[in-house]
Amino acid sequence: MLAAILVNGLVLSGIYGMLALGFALTYGVARILNLAHTAFYMAAAYALFFFLGLMGFAPAALLSALLVLGLALLAYWFFLEPLKEYEATVLIVTIALALLLQEVALLLFGGHFRSVPALLPGFVEILGVRVAQQALLALLFAGGVLLLAWAFLKGTRLGLSIRAAAQDQEAAELLGISLSRAGYWAVGLGALLAALAGLAVAPMATLEPHMWMPPLLVVLAAVVLGGLGSLPGALLGALVLAFAEVTVVNLVPGGAFLRTAVALLILVLVLVLRPEGLFGASFAEER
Amino acid sequence: MGRIGTAVLWAVALLLGSGVSAQTLRIGVVGPMAFVQGEHTWYGATLAAEEINRAGGVQIGNQRYRIELIRVDTNEMTSVTDAATAVERAITAQRVDFLMGGFRSEAVLAMTEVAADYRKIFIITGAGLDGLLAGRVDRNYERFKYLFRVSPNKSSDLARTSLLLAAEVVQAVRQQLGIPRPRVAILAERAAWADPLVETAGRLFAAPPPQGYGAEVVGTWRPSATATDVTPELTAIQRAGAQVIFTVLSGPVGVPFGRDWGRLRIPAAPVGINVEAQQETWLRATDNLGTYVATLNSLAPGVAITPRTIPFISNFQARFRQFPIYTASGAYGALYILAEALTRAGTTNVDAVVRALEATDYTGATGRIVFDRTHDVTWGPGYTTGLGVQWVGGRMQAFWPRNWQVEGRVVSYAGVRPYELPPWVVEAWRR
To answer: Does the keyword field hold Transmembrane (chain A) (predicted)?
Structure first.
């Protein structure tokens, strides 16, 4: 059972990690609580499904990621940057954007369940646990993407300015960092991470227009658990929630439907004991 | 032409116009039209309306009426409120005479309240909750007598059939794999309709024959109806050593189940209810990994339940290029049942039509439909029971009923073939 929890937990952590890091970046730098984040993930998965009908996997994936990136930057330019001082308005605009993307997907593809063929069919046994090769590929992909994102944030001047803006906006501005430029990069990178998560999940999941809702809840919980605005915190939050979910399914099979609820309970408990989350500033202060 | 002549002509035109509209029956076809369930409700009703209109319409008394269908998109997959509002709008603004359709039980419950308030006959064709009719029509007849159900069989009857299908698979494991006491895992979505079925199934599987199946229940897993990943559940089921998975899935979780099960080659044969596996799109939706999945269904290619089954399937496929799901056959039958009741009643008076509907004895594409005292479709041999289908060789084929012995008779349909255990289940467990 321990092996099953370990293996399945790691695979789920990779996906949640990519989504949570992108969400935390967008909030940390551009100060946008983007509720459309997982709708970008859904849009990327559907775009991949559509483009695969016209071309091979690699160009279809590239085109899908670029499409979502363009969409996110346009949305930021048109709606979010001019409004970002008004937090409540931004929340409403992003949820409206998510619903708009959902309705567009419904209009274009209908309510039918769609699937994207796996790049790697079949499974392997790890510690006696059957794991789909596609899931391992997704885990490797997620690990690679997260490492690249980390290297970019840690090892480049632009990454430094993004991290500085995430840490203290006023001090960053005093040091000559353009918050607007950092914001664009952060939104772009965040959307790209969401799109890559969508591309990684598409060959394993079932595509339907409402598929953005369940991960949004988990991602929100992960970034709050880790500490709103903290990038390592978001990753740790994703890891904790993924393992909590898998543990519930294995230990309480009759209550498997409670997996997300138990993960959220852990979030509440952590916030009661440590209101600022595992890393980062207090949620109360942020509000 | 003078002013008086023009006025007379207008009056004549108006009278003629009103005469034409009086000879039209407006039927509201309700459902989630962006989803296959609603789409097929509409298609089934459309096919029946076209056939009836081509044959001269509905004879009511000494007048003939044409059928006009009104498409009512309920958005019921996401909003129960939207569904009730759509039905109210159909009654008050679009002025429908009768209603049929509906898919999600929660939404149909709300929609039928509105229909009862307006005293509109509503024939349900998609929702299975027992309580849509039981406890309403029988307990408060005057308020709810306008409600009828043509399809599907109610949840408790669906449970009966799905357990009969499971018995076939348990028997296959026993006979083909030489396992005297097969191990069964129950995988049921977390929903109120599934609870009694889980409880009954658990008891029945474990009880010794002849009352029970003499199997061992290794556990019950209850994922959410909207779960997108059931890998942890399947890993745990594999670890528990199950040879059979009894599924109770009506929600979208059925698709990830089929994909994950096929991809991981879980050595346990799934059988039960999986609404997603009832559809023609199943293999495409599961990336061809859902092969060998078995589920309760109402129709299967090439299986003639009644003389009307094959013509219905052929006409439907010729017209819409799709294999009909149960909401299609339900709506198709519902329109014929309504048309025949109107002819028998000889009037559109609602109370007379209700009485005529109660006297229905109609042989449709999925079986013989006779309403019980709650206006529900009767289950049983000689009526409608459903089919057991399995995805084999890239297509859906029926495996039940095949020599089903019940109430002193043997029920079997032409075109039904034996159940096939998935090869990797055989490979893993053959002794």
So the answer is: yes
- d(CA A109, nearest CA chain B) in Å: 9
Residue B140, judged by CB atoms within 10 A of its CB (0-12, 13-18, 19+), counts as exposed
Mean pLDDT of chain A, nearest integer: 85
Domain-located, residue A238: no
Residues B127 and B178 in one domain: no
Q: Classify each residue of B192-224 as buried b or exposed e, where b means 16 or more C-beta atoms within 10 Å of its C-beta.
A: ebbeebbeebbebbeeeeeeebbbebbbbbbbb
Contact B228 A114 (CB under 8 A): no
Q: What angle do CA B179, B184, B190 make, to 5 degrees?
A: 170
DSSP B346-386: TS--HHHHHHHHHT--EEETTEEE-B-TTSPBPBSTTSB--
Chain B CB contacts of A210 below 8 Å: 78, 226
3-state secondary structure of B332: helix
Q: What is the pLDDT of residues B220-256, one digit of tens each?
A: 999 887 787 888 899 989 989 999 999 999 878 899 9
For an interface test with A, which of B228, B245, B276 has the most A Cβ atoms less than 10 Å from its Cβ?
Answer: B228
User: Domain for residue A76, yes or no?
Assistant: yes
Residue A169, domain member (yes or no): yes
Residues spanned by the domain of B121: 23-152+305-377
